[in-house]
Amino acid sequence: xxxxxxxxxxxxxxxxxxxxxxxxxxxxxxxxxxxxxxxxxxxxxxxxxxxxxxxxxxxxxxxxxxxxxxxxxxxxxxxxxxxxxxxxxxxxxxxxxxxxxxxxxxxxxxxxxxxxxxxxxxxxxxxxxxxxxxxxxxxxxxxxxxxxxxxxxxxxxxxxxxxxxxxxxxxxxxxxxxxxxxxxxxxxxxxxxxxxxxxxxxxxxxxxxxxxxxxxxxxxxxxxxxxxxxxxxxxxxxxxxxxxxxxxxxxxxxxxxxxxxxxxxxxxxxxxxxxxxxxxxxxxxxxxxxxxxxxxxxxxxxxxxxxxxxxxxxxxxxxxxxxxxxxxxxxxxxxxxxxxxxxxxxxxxxxxxxxxxxxxxxxxxxxxxxxxxxxxxxxxxxxxxxxxxxxxxxxxxxxxxxxxxxxxxxxxxxxxxxxxxxxxxxxxxxxxxxxxxxxxxxxxxxxxxxxxxxxxxxxxxxxxxxxxxxxxxxxxxxxxxxxxxxxxxxxxxxxxxxxxxxxxxxxxxxxxxxxxxxxxxxxxxxxxxxxxxxxxxxxxxxxxxxxxxxxxxxxxxxxxxxxxxxxxxxxxxxxxxxxxxxxxxxxxxxxxxxxxxxxxxxxxxxxxxxxxxxxxxxxxxxxxxxxxxxxxxxxxxxxxxxxxxxxxxxxxxxxxxxxxxxxxxxxxxxxxxxxxx
Length: 677
Prior knowledge:
By secondary structure, the protein is an alpha/beta fold. Helix 5 (82-90) runs antiparallel to helix 6 and helix 6 (96-113) crosses helix 9. The chain is 40% helix and 14% strand.
């Protein structure tokens, strides 16, 4: 039995202990549990996990965690900046992988905080002369370049010279973040280096560029690479462009490197000077001849900065990185420090930039109606620098049109890796007011000239098994490219067409070489899209004839006619002189020319396909039309395939048409790769 006094003491002791415990847990009583659980949405979770300085404007969770491990989050890095960067570099308590990835982001934060550059516009850069030079580089240029180079170097060190390889980190979000830091840094540094390079500040050695403490070594082209001797006038980051209008999608390849567009000076627009040739001599005339073809004026490119070194320390002290420029159509991956790394690429940006700056839509209408600012002869655009090892996919547009007709077709085809590997796209742009015979003849000669220029011996892959894709009137021209005429066209026109004496004389004297042709041997397949092989009803209607009156031929064609007239003169209103010589007249189903060419035999080796539109799914197919071209005109009895799509006349841009075109090209590639007996 406990004594009363002892019981009192024991109760007092228990009370005191409870009081102490309660005092010690006052925080718990006041604020609740030290760890609380809430809920986040899947989107919030991903944002917290993947957010970084680029996506949210704030440092990533991974970098903040590294700062806490290093004990810097409340000291040197309470306010990120150069002091924080130096403290992180000096830390010895974090592993190199975390340190390098965090330093890449810290340097990126610092680079983005520096004042924005004051760059001259491309127009000002091109207009600068020795007497009116470009403004000097601003004072902030070197600090910006240094910061971006530090981002690139730290990211490069993380990716290839830390504890684990890039392949071992392949599924980690952090590696994707740091790769993006590297790509952005190379992009910004490349644009800044071009600014220096274009000013002529690089000195006489164009393979090395000294800028502050950095020496950039331009890597030589790989063996067999096509040399592009054009002048680079502008360097545009692909990531800085957004496109609206008819372009439906942007196609790119994830990987390593900066995606850029190189805007080149077009030699066809800048005739070469011939200072050594006497004026009026054949040499001077040849030197100033304007080409009727040109390579893509804004090709895509991917740039890498490769830092040298056998270990982490050497890489972090390399101030002479190698600058590598790659054609993403030619190169899909590169080897970096023993690892195969996919090369980033943007297959849309250069093409879209070219179309956006071309003003084709207005120019094509001016050409049709003979207005000022139109074109007078066909021009061939090559969508990438000539590649001897890729076959040609040639596109020819229709009436009152231009290369813009193919914007989504070309873009979607280049998205297909197999098609991109096997083909290079060429596109003709021609004045659609010309008689079809003249356009065909000029296109044929331009095509021959291009192939002769790049492959005189005719041995390259590019010179064989060409595939032609043509829309509307372009299909009529394409049929002539693969047909034999003999003297059938000349004789038929002389017998059936109502011509003036001048026109008849022109046909007799110059028509024979123009209208007597054989199939182009390099073409092996043609896809006809909404092609009026036998003309249209619309061209011969009152509306068609009325529109045709406004179509005017180029002055050069009228001068050829005038040279045959007795007085050497002919009115520009050429439709008053007998047979109306323009494209719309040629497309009339009753026109003598379209009747004559409709049954010309195509080369036996040529395989051809039809993609035909009908504006409504109702009614018999034989009676259908796309609004301009009836089925009976676009149908070819012996085609390899025929796809009928409910669409208007511009069916080439319809998704089912593009899918069918891809199918045909894959069929062609399989046939081309199959062993031949």
